[in-house]
Amino acid sequence: MIEKAIKALVGWKGYMLAAGVGALVLVTAGAAVAWYGHSQRAAGRAECQEAQRVAGLEEFKEEAERLTGLSQAFADTAKKLATAKPQVIERYTREIVQTPLPVGCVRDPGRVRATNAGIDAANAARQLVPAVPSNPSR
Question: What's the CA gap between 125 and 136, in Å, rounded?
Fold first, then answer.
């Protein structure tokens, strides 16, 4: 039986069978290489997208921390301004009311600045919204 199969493959039929098997091996190897390349490309793309997501999250985290710092600074400034209002009034009372000038005496520049600062602070505290100048051309 084996002898009969060998005799059948002798000649051009054997070469055709070898060529067919060789072509099948080449096609299979090519398909395997193409599949491997495709899977590696997909894995690389997924890795790249993940790296971009992580970078975006890191950027968001940095921006959130920056905004938290700014809001804390704003809250500290607002607290300082809230506590500064009584200090301006106390300073005005201490420098102007409690230590009046003698008759015929002129106020020095420091007292004038203190008076003006007290007036400005009182006006600013009284106004809820800053005044907007009206423009008749509009």
Answer: 28
Render 31-71 in DSSP notation, one character per residue: HHHHHHHHHHHHHHHHHHHHHHHHHHHHHHHHHHHHHHHHH
Name the H helices within the chain. Answer: 2-9, 12-92, 109-126
CA distances from 17 to 5, 8, 9, 13, 27 (A): 12, 11, 8, 6, 15
- Which two three-digit tokens encode residue 128? 């809820």
Distance CA 37, CA 31 (A): 10
> CB neighbours of 67 closer than 8 A, spacing ≥ 6?
none
- What pTM did the predictor assign? 0.40
* Segment 40-71, tens digit of pLDDT: 999 999 999 999 999 999 999 999 999 999 99
Residue-level length of the chain: 138
Q: What is the pLDDT of residues 16-44, one digit of tens each?
A: 888 899 999 999 999 999 999 999 999 99
